[in-house]
Amino acid sequence: QTMARDLKTAIESNALCLNYQPLMCIEGKRVTGVEALLRWHHDDLGLISPEIFVPIAEKNGLMGELGNWVLKRAFEDARVWPDVITSINLSVLQFAKPDFAEIVLKLARDMGVVADRIEFEITETAMTNDTTSFLAQVEVLRKAGFRFALDDFGSGYASIGYLSRLNFHKLKIDRSFVSALSVKPDADRMIRSIVSLGAAMGLTITAEGVEDVHQHEILKAVGCDQLQGFLFHRPCSRSDVEAILKREV
Ligand code: G
Ligand code: G
Ligand code: MN
Ligand code: NA
């Protein structure tokens, strides 16, 4: 596949970059974290979405290399804003390497990154075949102080039992539930039940994809903890993040 070959070249030649989208406190006024989002500027095809090329990396044995590139760059950037948490998306395939957790620990040590300032986001859909290696390595990283968030909650297949075994810190409500708030009058019931489930398990609840004030009002009323979406900030460059944080103080 030529796309896979191009991606390999892109990783090696630094044709990738990370954007960051701020996560806001429930009032929407203060930035509490930023999520790293990978971007690939292809020479001929232009900007390609990670929704397209992350699966290509996964199918072609490039996820380890791509994931390591993301970790290194995100750790580098996280040092610039030590007061907020940096979230990094991980593919479950990265845990297929038995020494993945060790690599992360070493990288954090070498780069002087504090574990509790880093949060790893793992997509619910990706966790269908539950491997013991995955759970064991999550546990190693969690014990070292790294935070974990279950991404796109409600869109995939993770069972509630699985959620309790994972011992994550945060649950991110899939943006489809948030966009439904603008369409279906009773859509808040779904979010209410996710919030009460998460609260019972001691999890922080983040709502993704918040696009308007009406959605914000409802999310605040039902007891979400954190918000992310175009209403507040779009994904932006590292220097934009620095400017946003500077404006806040
Ligand atoms: O940024 P955007 O909305 O285009 O992201 C689309 C999808 O790609 C999201 O599901 C997001 O989680 C995923 N994604 C973005 N960056 C990364 C990354 O660095 N690693 C992995 N594994 N997935 C990512
Ligand atoms: O699956 P994950 O949550 O990692 O996906 C993050 C993706 O969601 C990013 O690609 C980002 O561009 C996108 N996103 C962030 N905020 C919004 C929003 O308010 N509306 C929409 N439609 N997409 C958003
Ligand atoms: Mn995410
Ligand atoms: Na998500």
List the helices and strands and how they pair.
Blueprint: H1 2-12, E1 16-25, E2 31-42, E3 46-48, H2 50-59, H3 63-78, E4 85-90, H4 100-111, E5 118-123, H5 132-143, E6 147-153, H6 160-166, E7 170-173, H7 175-180, H8 188-200, E8 204-207, H9 213-222, E9 226-227, H10 238-248
Parallel strand pairs: 2-4, 4-5, 5-6, 6-7, 7-8, 8-9
Antiparallel strand pairs: 1-2, 1-9, 2-3
Helix pairs in contact: 3-4, 4-5
One guanosine-5'-monophosphate (G) is lined by residues 21, 37, 89, 151-152, 175, 208-211, 228-230, 235.
Quick summary of this structure?
By secondary structure, the protein is of the alpha/beta class. Helices cover 43% and strands 22% of the residues.
Description:
- It contains ten helices and nine strands.
- The protein has helices at residues 2-12, 50-59, 63-78, 100-111, 132-143, 160-166, 175-180, 188-200, 213-222, 238-248, and strands at residues 16-25, 31-42, 46-48, 85-90, 118-123, 147-153, 170-173, 204-207, 226-227.
- It is globular and about 50 Å long.
- It has one domain (2-248): EAL domain (TIM Barrel), CATH 3.20.20.
- The model has no long low-confidence stretch (mean pLDDT 93).
- A hairpin with a 3-residue loop joins strand 2 and strand 3 (46-48).
- With 249 residues, it is an alpha/beta fold.
- The chain has an eight-stranded mixed β-barrel with strand order 1-2-4-5-6-7-8-9, surrounded by five helices.
- One guanosine-5'-monophosphate binds at residues 37-38, 49-51, 54, 70, 89-91, 235.
Order of helices and strands: HEEEHHEHEHEHEHHEHEH
CATH architecture: Alpha-Beta Barrel
Q: Measured on Cα atoms, how large is the radius of gyration?
A: 18 Å
Strand content: 15-25%
Which structural class do the helices and strands define?
Answer: alpha/beta
Q: Quick one: CATH superfamily?
A: EAL domain
- The quaternary state of the protein chains shown equals single chain
Identify the strand order in the major beta sheet: 1-2-4-5-6-7-8-9
N/C terminus separation? 48 Å
CATH class: Alpha Beta
Tally the beta strands.
9
Give the number of domains: 1
Low-confidence stretches: none
Shape: globular
Portion in helices: 40-55%
> How many helices in DSSP terms?
10
Question: What fold name goes in the CATH topology slot?
Answer: TIM Barrel
Bound molecules: guanosine-5'-monophosphate, manganese (II) ion, sodium ion
